[in-house]
Amino acid sequence: MRRLLILLLLGGCASGPRVDEIKLPPGFRISIYAEGIPEARSLALGDRGTLFVGGKEKDVYAVPPGGGRPVRIAAGLQEPHGVAFRDGALYVGERSRILRYDGIEERLSNPPQPVVVSADLPPYKHHGLRTLRFGPDGLLYVPVGAPCNICEPEEKYAVITRLDVRNPMREVFARGVRNTVGFDWHPRTKELWFTDNGRDLLGHEAPPDELNHAPRAGMHFGYPYCHGGDLLDPQYGQRRSCSEFAAPAQKLGAHVAALGMRFYTGAQFPAEYRDAIFIAEHGSWNRRPKSGYRITVVKLRDGKAASYEPFAEGWLRNDKFWGRPVDLIVAPDGSLLVSDDHAGVIYRVSYAGQ
Amino acid sequence: MRSLAMRLALLLALPLLGGCDLVRFYVNETSGVPPTKLVPLFFQEREYAEDQRLIAKVRGALAAEPGLRGADIAVDAYKMQVSLQGRGASPDQMAKALAVARDVPGVKSAEIR
Fold first, then answer.
1. Is B36 on the interface with A (CB under 8 A)?
2. Cβ neighbour number for residue A315 with a 10 Å cutoff
3. d(CA A227, CA B109)
4. CA–CA separation, B22 vs A30, rounded Å?
5. Which residues of B fall within a CB distance of 8 Å from A151?
6. Hey, is A140 helix, strand or coil?
């Protein structure tokens, strides 16, 4: 009896991630892939299956193939949120610089000094986390968010830029993007899709976050003039029309803070998820009741968004949260790895059948 | 004129002037996010706007300087620290521009990039 009581007490006090509270569709399972990574943000996979994890503060971590104990491979950086992998090298996006760590997978315990690829990114903290990802064209895509909640900034802001890492002159790919922290290319059409976070202080239900589709360079997605494709900004929307701008492919929930997004390219999940878009919703800070704190899935039909539904929920309960999904990536075995910067863990979502 | 005391007085007077509307705005629009979070965000967001205002002032001062007529000088700033970049301007002009920029109210420092 006493032992039972102690067990109950211990159970009640345990403060680790409570993965058994996460609700998934039938047949799916979620487990801890790695823990002890405070501020786990962007994810990238090395050629050998090493998982690289960017951070919001100073450190970058690597998780060995298959999961387990994380290794800190870089420290003392400035908000190294973004990570990308190419030709054996890890690229890290700081607020103002892009760094390269050559041959990183052979040297996890003794990482090389980084090479500075580019140092021309803006210095402001507001929307200063840089997400990096290589496109199918071999270029490195680097969004630069607006240096404010809502303002009409210089042309170098509120854009998605791209560069050839051998000749680091950035060019603008898309405009009117407030702050995207997740983007991916459709596995068949090779066209870019990205999430964008809507502005704050327009109320609890507006504007929606966005899932956007940029099939070509030079498109404008509305910020700061038009939000969600049909809501003119009360301040900057005057003398503008939403028809001037590209509307979202899918409106997401208001203030859900849609961050990472990835097309499902694995073979493990059921066929209905093939080429579907998984989105990590980090969760609102300025909405009541809270929303987000979940993973959603957008399924496409004929190149258009056909549905937007929750996939994994349970980080939020009674308006309190214990975890916040940030980024996701499809592991070589087809499972989905998800970072959480609040619980400081990486989850693995797998499908085991009915 | 816009001294700290003035600003403080205005800040204190706002709830009185705005009354319930302001309180309602605060609760609705910020979802009751505590001031400990909102205040740093407010200042963080002002960084860019204040630098932009300062850049405009420095550009104005350079344009108004007779000795710099026609000189192509790019102005940038971060946290009120100004940097100038001459595009074809002579060393004398750059030295003059530096002196002018340093005299603009609000400029913490000025340097040539």
1. no
2. 25
3. 38
4. 45
5. 48-49
6. strand
SS3 content of chain A, % helix, strand, coil (to 5): 5, 40, 50
Nearest to A123 among B29, B37, B78 (CB): B78
The β-bridge partners of A173 are none
Do the Cβ atoms of B47 and A126 come within 8 Å? yes
> Do A153 and B47 make contact, defined as CB atoms within 8 angstroms?
no
Phi and psi, residue B67, nearest 5°: -70, -10
Digit-by-digit pLDDT tens for chain A (354 residues) are 455 444 444 444 345 678 999 999 999 999 999 999 999 999 999 999 999 999 999 999 999 999 989 999 999 999 999 999 999 999 999 999 999 999 999 999 999 999 999 999 999 999 999 999 999 999 999 999 999 999 999 999 999 999 999 988 999 999 999 999 999 999 999 999 999 999 988 888 899 999 999 999 999 999 999 999 999 999 999 999 999 999 999 999 999 999 999 999 999 999 999 999 999 999 987 788 889 999 999 999 999 999 999 999 999 988 889 999 999 999 999 999 999 999 999 999 999 986
Decide if B30 and A125 are in contact by the 8 Å CB cutoff.
no
Please enumerate in sequence order all residues whose Cβ is within 8 A of that of A138, keeping only pairs 6 or more positions apart, or say none: A164
- With CB atoms and an 8 Å threshold, state whether B49 touches A125: no
d(CA B15, CA A32): 48
Sheet holding A192-196, edge to edge: A183-185, A192-196, A208-214, A250-254
Query: B-chain residues within 8 Å CB-CB of A203?
Result: 28-29
Decide if the complex's ipTM is over 0.85: no
Predicted structure pTM score: 0.89
CB A270 within 8 A of CB A201: no
Q: How many helices (H) and strands (E) does chain B have?
A: 3, 3
Instruction: Give contacts of B53 with chain A, Cβ < 8 Å.
Output: none
Those residues of chain A whose CB sits closer than 8 Å to some CB in chain B are: 123-126, 147-149, 151, 153-154, 200-204, 284-288
B37 touches chain A (CB under 8 A): yes
Host H or E run for residue B27: helix B4-30
